[in-house]
Amino acid sequence: AHNPSMWAVHVGLTEQPVHGAQSLAVDKIIYHARYRPKGLDYDIALMKLSTALVFNGFVQPICLPNYGEEFEEGTMCWISGWGATEEEETSVVLRSAMVPLLSTKTCNQPEVYQGYISNWMICAGYLDGGTDSCQGDSGGPLACEDSSVWKLVGATSWGIGCAMRNKPGVYTRITQSLSWIRQQMELLLSRKDNPESLHFTLRLK
């Protein structure tokens, strides 16, 4: 899984198999150095594509949140992915659902996740269950709209079961990851063998 040549990124599709979507090779995969497979923190990675994406009606960027930006409990956000549903192990149609954000205090209650939720995590979902991300959705977006601007608030990370009572989805908190993301992108752009470093300056608020 660490070999970039084993990966391809398909964008601009809402159904499988791939028809008319852009397929791009992966040049580099950057894992967080402190991530451990048996741990729960630092669950984030970046992919550098071999060629640039072409934005169109089906392919658009999403904004990163600002440093220190807070998202209130109860804010309704969207999750999406190709993962398991009640009917099937994986979905051939891109699924999406709206879920409310939960505070760390709520998510760390004894009947929920018993203190396992760290600053690197954010919870979203219904404590009554019923709507959730599931196996196969990992890495997918938790996206929230803020004044007509879509922001990537979380990346699907883990949970106990799927859509179970008192077991909401847990996502990597992107605001906690911003410094690491910036550091990795600046390292890539500053390398002398990268001609892009002459033309681009990374800007994160």
From TrEMBL:
Keyword Hydrolase in record: yes
InterPro entries (UniProt xref): Peptidase_S1_PA, Peptidase_S1_PA_chymotrypsin, Peptidase_S1A, Trypsin_dom, TRYPSIN_SER
Entry keywords, A to Z: Disulfide bond, Glycoprotein, Hydrolase, Protease, Serine protease
Protein name: Transmembrane serine protease 3a
PROSITE patterns on file: TRYPSIN_DOM (PS50240), TRYPSIN_SER (PS00135)
Record's signal peptide: none
Natural source organism: Sparus aurata
Pfam families, alphabetized: Trypsin (PF00089)
Domain spans labelled Peptidase S1: 1-186
GO MF entries: serine-type endopeptidase activity
A biological process from GO: proteolysis
Protein origin, superkingdom: Eukaryota
Keyword presence, Glycoprotein: yes
Family annotation (Gene3D superfamilies): Trypsin-like serine proteases (2.40.10.10)
